[in-house]
Amino acid sequence: MTEPILLKGARFVLTMTGQGVLEDADIRIEDGRIAGAGPLRKQRGDEVVDCRRCIILPGLVNCHTHSSMVALRGLNDDAPLGEWLKSMWEVEGELTGETASLASEMAFLEMVRSGTTSCLDMYEAFEAAKAADRVGIRMSNGPAFLSKFNAPEKTFKDTERFISEYKGHGTIGPVVNVHAMYTNSPETISKAAEMSKAHDVPFHIHCSETREEVFECRKERGKLPVEELDSLGALWEKSILVHLGWASSWEFKRMHERGASAVHCPSSNLKLGTGGFFPMKDLLSQGLRVGIGTDSAASNNSLDMFREMKEASLVQKGQYWDASAVRAMDVLKAATVTGNSILGTDAGRIEAGAQADLVLLKIDPVLLPLRKYTLPSALVYSATGHLVKGTMVGGEWVCLDGTMKNGKDLAGRYEHLTDKVQGALL
Amino acid sequence: MTEPILLKGARFVLTMTGQGVLEDADIRIEDGRIAGAGPLRKQRGDEVVDCRRCIILPGLVNCHTHSSMVALRGLNDDAPLGEWLKSMWEVEGELTGETASLASEMAFLEMVRSGTTSCLDMYEAFEAAKAADRVGIRMSNGPAFLSKFNAPEKTFKDTERFISEYKGHGTIGPVVNVHAMYTNSPETISKAAEMSKAHDVPFHIHCSETREEVFECRKERGKLPVEELDSLGALWEKSILVHLGWASSWEFKRMHERGASAVHCPSSNLKLGTGGFFPMKDLLSQGLRVGIGTDSAASNNSLDMFREMKEASLVQKGQYWDASAVRAMDVLKAATVTGNSILGTDAGRIEAGAQADLVLLKIDPVLLPLRKYTLPSALVYSATGHLVKGTMVGGEWVCLDGTMKNGKDLAGRYEHLTDKVQGALL
Question: What is the pLDDT of residue B68?
């Protein structure tokens, strides 16, 4: 048991509860959870952190990424999609074992440094899990079904092993990770979905990212991708479908009926030029759960969820020709409350009882003038992860003033990892 | 005359010339200009700056902004366009004189701190000019023709006065600033264009930002906006048309024939939900000069040109459904070489003879892994202005390690200005 922590005198606290924004407030953390928020007195044994020049908000949830692809950042950028993908597959063959673990650690360090407390990952799950443990970030992951690289039999075994190893782990959550419909047989998808239900863990899949994919699915299987997933039994309340730029309104309706969630990766969709339209405004008004993801550092090339929240809001306003389409509070909710709901974590709000997944943000000129009612706007449209002073996961500082939880300098460790990964890939 | 400065050992230098990217290079600055770039020896009297953990690139040009509107950042965000505009006009009535000057200073400080060395401004020109002088940023500006607020006769007189006061000034450039066609009579526009030609200064106007505007122009004047500008004599080689989301291909052809320039403000267009399509890929291949602008901090809400370059590239890739549509180097060129060409400054490239408008960027984890050939990608897709260590305009440090050219702490000055401006507006 660690000592209680008292975050003292935060200028603003974005609670994401009915309380709205607190001013000049304190937060006490005990046993990994929030014990209280508001005007609080220092108690004996409290470790006090001066937050007078800070904003505190719930930690951000990155609902889709491929952590170790950070090693491929910048590679063949601006190439047409097919060509880019080909160059990714080539290097990815090398990105395994220890190298993958070190690369994943880079991504997780970058995430916690920019205010992300939890992510849904799809990459070398066992290696990523070691990295997530080193960093202290929450991570959901699982071996990826991807017939191009792995026989499904092996992936089923590995997934069983991953689930039994990590079910009940405090910060690592097992997931059934299916790369996509076009990289797996219908039988594999169906069996994988069954497995996710049997173990009550999320089923995570890329879906309807490109027009080609939808066209091929319709041609080969006679159904649109989401309909086909449903007929394979893969659409249930822990299903998480990512991208969906080319999904139709009735497919979203089907997702809603089944309780499945959608993840929006606006920067990646734009950067890869996949086109389409993710109708976030409509999905939110229907009550579908929508999370936000950066996708990999190779297709973004940033893992900063502050930047991604802005992109999501801007893209939606642009696509709907409506400045009110998706507001600052909508994307904040997607990145906190909803992200945690999708991944099954009791966090994303600042109130007694919730997991203490928090971000301390420095008040910087780019946020000024700052008033209580412009706080959501400042966080979404002006802030970036560079303003993060500290990130806490389950009551533990995973990044504070540039230092990792093990006391090491974060940037120094990052450079060291970069050198090792580049050395291994060359 | 100041002492020569030797920037020593930069990891990478993005020259924006045929030389491409230099590695481990030095740059000497003498009398406000670049004296050389490459491996250089320290000479007696050189002031040496250690750049070993830095990237050096030409200073960024923000081709469209309204500086003092930074005071309105966050105000009524997410409201529909018409409602938002109304709330802007209301507060803007107060944003004059000393208050406007202090607010403009905030914007200029924010710009130099994030790597912008030059901007094209449209707001309270006399007050902004004082602020630009205090900060040391290059600024082009002029009293705005806007019949709602000012009688044109007064604006003509003020413009004459601004031109005679600032023509030949080292860092402030006069401009004929016409708010828009729908806020001025054809006679005013025609006479303003004449004035810009007579004084050989830029003619800067918002054009075809919204569908309504194009519809109204067609209805009232029988022509599309760019055609009408042409028939009023307002389309010449120093004309700068901003937004153009609703301009047609033949209007762009007309602009190209006249040698006029176009400015893309992607974040503002998205945030205000004005819709339309700025066909940057086509414009570049036609040879039209295209600059990039953040627009005001009220409609963005950031003045960070690194973020704006990314947005421009992403929006274009997204709209063309093509990852190669507008590449990292294309937006870097727009924000350096072309921006300076549009504003008539001999800067935007790192080679002997050019004005020393430069940015020093810290090498940060978010840029890694970094190779010579991924440098443009890292600058556009991963960097933000928070990585700026120093910004130099005409050989003078306007921001270095958080300090202004007058030795004051930049963030402290910014907070002080915010308090004064808020106090005056309340």
Answer: 95
